[in-house]
Amino acid sequence: xxxxxxxxIAILSCLLLxxxxxxxxxxxxxEDAIEQQxxxxxxxxxxxGFSKDVIEDLGDYYLVDGDIVFDKNAKYPDPEDxxxxxxxxxxxxTISNVRIYINPGMDANWRNASVQAINRxxxxxxxxxxxxxxxSSNSHIQIMYDSQDPSINxxxxxxxxxxxxxxxGLPGRGIWVNPDFNSPGLCGxxxxxxxxxxxxxxxxxxxxxxxxxxxxxGSLIPGTPNLDALSVMNGxxxxxxxxxxxGDKTAIRYLFPNTPTxxxxxPKTFYRFYNSGAIDHFYSTNRSAPSxxxxxxxxxxxxxxxxxxxxxxxxxxxxxxxxHFYSTNRGEVANAAGYQYQGVAGYVYSSRGSGRIPLYRFYNSxxxxxxxTTNRNEGNGAAGYxxxxxxxxxxx
Length: 396
Description:
Elements: E1 8-9, E2 19-23, H1 40-47, E3 55-57, E4 61-64, E5 68-71, E6 97-102, H2 108-122, E7 129-133, E8 141-145, E9 158-163, E10 174-177, H3 183-187, H4 193-207, E11 219-220, H5 246-255, E12 268-275, E13 280-284, E14 294-302, E15 311-318, E16 323-327, H6 330-334, E17 340-348, E18 356-364, E19 369-373, H7 376-380, E20 386-395
Parallel strand pairs: 6-7, 6-8, 8-10
Antiparallel strand pairs: 1-11, 2-5, 2-9, 3-4, 4-5, 9-10, 12-13, 12-14, 15-16, 15-17, 18-19, 18-20
């Protein structure tokens, strides 16, 4: 194609049974294809932006751009249909762990090349992880010679062929490689091990939904360059592709973003302290008693970091009254006369739930002391203290 574009995502969840083969550049005859003007598949292909001079009629299917197969018996989405315009979704293959079966009938060079290609994919920092399985029935992708599949016969100028995903969230099923590729005639040298690795690497890209970098089929992936001569996903470059370019890696990370697993946050014991001289209660996840305070025990558990569903329990201190004050209402703490905001004591819940208990709030205006307890009776029995409601809910 004369118009070079960035990485494309295959029509994936919309297009069915698309297969792609990768070969050296060749001229494509279109005389038979353009005669069938009333063919629905042909019209759809043209709507996708392919010119008639790159469409070849091969009987049961159309070969487009020398690499892409459109089955005449399949139905493909009309690009003018608004639904089909969602093809740029970054998660065309929705699974993260892909199992690949390497046919043991291939020779050691091809088996090792397949393993190395998988290793190259895994070296990219993405959430897509490929692994080798010895069970063909348990695999998502199978790599084999074309001669090991009676339905496939790759021409001597075709190095390999992959299969695009078909819309069920799984990668394309088959990858076929051609051990009889005419490398001396087309590349000027025998097949090297790196050629095997790079071309298997390339075909895996098709199976997980990446089209050719240097062809117009598919949608642009944001952040990738308009031109990338180093891309391993360039089509018609079986002799020269080498390894992932920076643009390739950007495309893979865009399609399969590696979201870090959030750290597990465990609740912390919430301790109660008392200063009899100041007549003040103090609450903290730190078991060490502040100067002048003695530990009265644990009243429950709170989080020291925010987790889903929690809210901050703010704390403030009145130096003149020698009183600590706690509330989930930041405005109440900030506007309390004489109190200085001291941050967050912990993260708590605003409502009941499994494993949660209410933290009751009491206040003694005579001695100016806020008192918090999970034992309602304890608060009710404290002389001079008035019940002010549930401050929050903490864990048992």
